[in-house]
UniProtKB/TrEMBL annotation:
<dbReference type="InterPro" id="IPR031680">
    <property type="entry name" value="Hepar_II_III_N"/>
</dbReference>
<feature type="domain" description="Heparin-sulfate lyase N-terminal">
    <location>
        <begin position="56"/>
        <end position="275"/>
    </location>
</feature>
<feature type="signal peptide">
    <location>
        <begin position="1"/>
        <end position="23"/>
    </location>
</feature>
<dbReference type="InterPro" id="IPR012480">
    <property type="entry name" value="Hepar_II_III_C"/>
</dbReference>
<keyword id="KW-0732">Signal</keyword>
<dbReference type="InterPro" id="IPR008929">
    <property type="entry name" value="Chondroitin_lyas"/>
</dbReference>
<dbReference type="Pfam" id="PF16889">
    <property type="entry name" value="Hepar_II_III_N"/>
</dbReference>
<keyword id="KW-0456">Lyase</keyword>
<keyword id="KW-0574">Periplasm</keyword>
<feature type="domain" description="Heparinase II/III-like C-terminal">
    <location>
        <begin position="322"/>
        <end position="499"/>
    </location>
</feature>
<protein>
    <recommendedName>
        <fullName>Heparin-sulfate lyase N-terminal domain-containing protein</fullName>
    </recommendedName>
</protein>
<dbReference type="Pfam" id="PF07940">
    <property type="entry name" value="Hepar_II_III_C"/>
</dbReference>
Length: 543
């Protein structure tokens, strides 16, 4: 690694910063991007210090060692080699005209180019597909103020890699970033071939990534916010480059906002399905008119109201087999009632290859039924076979063969008098067992006779289980241990009360928020639940 302390005069001789001190610097769209808040401050970078992913700052000094990855974290290494933190300095130069920021940015970028040739990079992250896509716009930004052969050559090399379809991520947010990057270089270097290739590919990828209903196909709703933001950047860049925005891109982008809002609970946070924590709070989107929505991509969402935080909300998963950012969560559900989370998903911890990360992706990390004694078959599709709903009550039936035999779940959600009822069963004479993970604030009060009560202060919730219209006991309750965990945000791991049912030929689970004394009775194939707000009746078979 060479020393990064080139004097400004030498930088100018090498084709570095061309502006003189005190001169007015033109602000450019390439450098004033919405990605800036996610980077370390210019003052921190100038001190040789960077912080990513809410992890403690790291000293990289003046002479950057591009092998640096103190946390051995894949995401950290990717962000480090994206060089967007270098772009922060160029943006600062545009804002205040101080050449020291541009000089330092030039030092960092030129050193990266020198120390990371494609055939012998200092780090495997240097030429991984996503860091390339994120780094290219930062280098385009730098090229707005630095006219140097090494920089033009690097941009051309980035374009060649970005344009290679063998390295392209079709139908994925990374592919969108790759096309934004290729378009940016093509526009900056006035190469229409690169522009055309990026536009053709982006149009196809958007149609693969966002379906005709506006649902994101990556199986993690929180990525819809990222895709929405990045497509806005892509469309703006197309216009700035004098190119027309394809209709398929603008149409699917406009529908994506509805999917984002349907995936958001009454408290304003996105439901943590797939690789997404419970701390993502979308803003600036308009509420759709429907209160119940079934997305054929594999999502059922329902709510009682859009404007009231105390309204009820639920999610149910089905659809194609797991891919991209999805988890093995089919037939899984979440439930929000009376202004708070009741049933929650284990969430997303990180992309690190740890045992816990892989556990969060497994069926056991979700509120699902499992078939006793049968082997789980990953990436199995699940069908939504029946629906019936109105504003006060919704019913669904889902089925798959994820365990080699028919696995069926029927769900009823009753509003006003809040009740959720779930009937699970399996074919071939097999027994089922189910898992129920509650919000971490809810702690065990009692567990007896097939009824489990949890509470958080004055708020109480009851779980009652029946089999063949009779109470079934033997529930196991964990908080921590093997199953009792949730990850509400990146790298977090918190204990949560989790109820595991006994094995039975069929299991009817009734969740009653707001009371520790629900009266649940079953006779003649009909269940009656006495809630704090009144009685609710339904068929024991749900349908």
């Amino acid at each position: 690694m060479r020393r990064l302390a080139l004097p400004l005069a030498l930088l100018l001789a090498l084709g570095g910063p061309a502006d003189t001190a005190g001169a007015t610097v033109k602000r450019t769209a390439e450098c004033q991007g919405d990605w800036l808040p996610a980077t370390p401050t210019a003052a921190e970078v100038m001190k040789g210090e960077v912080a990513f992913l809410d992890l403690p700052p790291v000293k990289v000094g003046q002479d950057v060692d591009w092998r640096t990855n103190p946390y051995k974290n894949r995401s950290w290494g990717m962000v480090f080699h994206s060089l967007r933190w270098m772009g922060r300095l160029v943006a600062e130069y545009e804002n205040n005209g101080e050449e020291r920021y541009l000089a330092r940015a030039t030092e960092i970028a030129q050193d990266w180019v020198k120390d990371n040739p494609r055939g012998r990079p200092a780090s495997p992250y240097a030429w991984a597909e996503h860091p390339i896509a994120l780094r290219a716009p930062a280098l385009v930004c730098l090229s707005r103020h630095v006219d140097a052969k090494w920089l033009k050559d690097s941009l051309s090399e980035h374009a060649r890699v970005l344009g290679d379809d063998r390295l392209y991520e079709w139908g994925h947010n990374h592919g969108i970033d790759q096309d934004i990057a290729l378009l940016g270089i093509g526009c900056r270097l006035n190469d229409r071939r690169w522009q055309d290739h990026a536009i053709r590919r982006l149009t196809k990828t958007v149609k693969l990534d966002i379906d005709s209903q506006g649902a994101l196909m990556e199986q993690a709703p929180r990525y819809a916010i990222y895709v929405h933001d990045r497509l806005k950047v892509a469309m703006t860049n197309l216009k700035d480059c004098g190119r027309k925005v394809p209709g398929d891109i603008s149409a699917r982008w406009s529908k994506l906002g509805g999917f984002i809002m349907h995936s958001t609970n009454p408290a304003g946070f996105m439901v943590p399905i797939g690789d997404g924590g419970a701390d993502h709070e979308p803003s600036g989107f308009q509420n759709p008119s429907e209160r119940v929505k079934v997305f054929k991509a594999g999502y059922v969402y329902g709510r009682t109201d859009w404007a009231k935080p105390e309204s009820a909300f639920y999610s149910i998963r089905f659809g194609p087999g797991t891919k991209y950012h999805g988890h093995e969560d089919h037939l899984g559900l979440t439930y929000y009632a009376q202004g708070r989370d009741v049933l929650v998903d284990a969430g997303f911890h990180s992309y690190e290859p740890t045992r816990y990360r892989y556990w969060t992706m497994s069926p056991e990390a979700h509120n699902v039924p499992t078939v006793v004694g049968a082997r789980f078959r990953p990436r199995t599709a699940t069908k939504l076979s029946r629906t019936a709903y109105d504003s006060g009550r919704q019913r669904y039936r889902l089925t798959d063969k994820a365990y080699g035999v028919s696995r069926t779940r029927s769900v009823l959600v009753n509003h006003d008098e809040d009740v959720m009822a779930v009937l699970d069963g399996a074919g071939g004479g097999r027994k089922v067992r189910n898992i129920w993970r509650f919000d971490p604030s809810l702690k065990l009060v009692s567990n007896s006779g097939g009824k489990v009560v949890l509470a958080d202060g004055k708020f109480k919730v009851s779980l009652v289980q029946l089999s063949g219209c009779k109470p079934v006991g033997g529930q196991k309750v964990e908080r921590g241990g093997r199953l009792g965990w949730v990850s509400p945000s990146y790298m977090a791991k918190n204990p949560a009360t989790t109820v595991v049912s006994p094995a039975s030929a069929s299991l009817l689970t009734v969740i009653v928020p707001g009371t520790d004394q629900p009266k649940v009775s079953c006779a003649g194939g009909k269940v009656t639940v006495q809630t704090a707000d009144g009685a609710v009746g339904f068929k024991a078979s749900i349908f």
